[in-house]
Amino acid sequence: MSNTKKELRLKYKTLRKQLSENEREEMSLGISNQLLQLDIWDKNYFHIFLPIEEYQEVDTELILHLLSGKDKEILISKSNFETREMTHYLLTDNTKIKKNQYNIPEPVDGIEVPSKKIEVVFVPLLAFDKKGHRVGYGKGFYDKFLSECQVETIKIGLSFFEAEEIIDDVHEGDMQLDYCVTPNKIYHF
């Protein structure tokens, strides 16, 4: 059976929809507990995505609590759908968050931080393989953003499900993950 991004996108969107809210919460908790074992906590600038509820994404609120408990600088992004670019803002107590037309929660404005400063990125995905390649929603925002980061920036995928053996149609511009964390396991690439 082939494993193209298109097929994997369909498969995992369906699998996610089948999870109950309780299962999603349990699994999100499992993922944030696994993160504590990673060697990333000496870093300062962490980029995180706010979940799109309609897409049943990993709930990153627990990770936000971890980060603020450890006094980390937390960055969230605003996406420009014309240029496919993301602008990163420092998350502070005054940050106003509003959903855009795609239901993505985004900061209205704030203190901008360049990609080059970001040390750890938590990456949303639909599927990933044992080589650290990921399948996102196909818009290319994260590949573009990750290519603007430093080479040593740590890229961590968050997934409810375990790795696929291989993704058939990986492109040259696809950015590889360093880790992918599931509720039960940490993959290191």
Secondary structure blueprint with pairings:
Elements: H1 5-17, H2 21-35, E1 45-47, H3 61-69, E2 73-80, E3 85-90, E4 97-99, E5 105-107, E6 120-124, E7 127-128, E8 134-135, H4 141-148, E9 154-158, E10 179-182, E11 185-188
Parallel strand pairs: 1-2, 1-6, 6-9, 9-10
Antiparallel strand pairs: 2-3, 4-5, 7-8, 10-11
Sheet-strand content, in percent, reads 15-25%
At the third CATH level, what is the topology name?
Answer: Rossmann fold
**Estimated helix fraction:** 10-25%
Tally of helical segments: 4
Number of strands: 11
Shape: globular
CATH homologous superfamily, by name? NagB/RpiA/CoA transferase-like
Quaternary status: single chain
Cα gyration radius (Å): 16 Å
Rounded to the nearest angstrom, the distance between the terminal CA atoms is 24 Å
The CATH C-level class name:
Alpha Beta
Low-confidence stretches: none
Mean pLDDT: 95
Based on the structure given, which CATH architecture is correct?
Answer: 3-Layer(aba) Sandwich
Count of individual domains: 1
Which properties best describe this structure?
magnesium, FTHF_cligase, alpha/beta, 4 helices, two-stranded antiparallel ribbon, Rossmann fold, 24% strand, nucleotide-binding, 24% helix
Q: What's the short story on this structure?
A:
This is 5-formyltetrahydrofolate cyclo-ligase. With 189 residues, the chain is an alpha/beta fold. The protein has helices at residues 5-17, 21-35, 61-69, 141-148, and strands at 45-47, 73-80, 85-90, 97-99, 105-107, 120-124, 127-128, 134-135, 154-158, 179-182, 185-188.
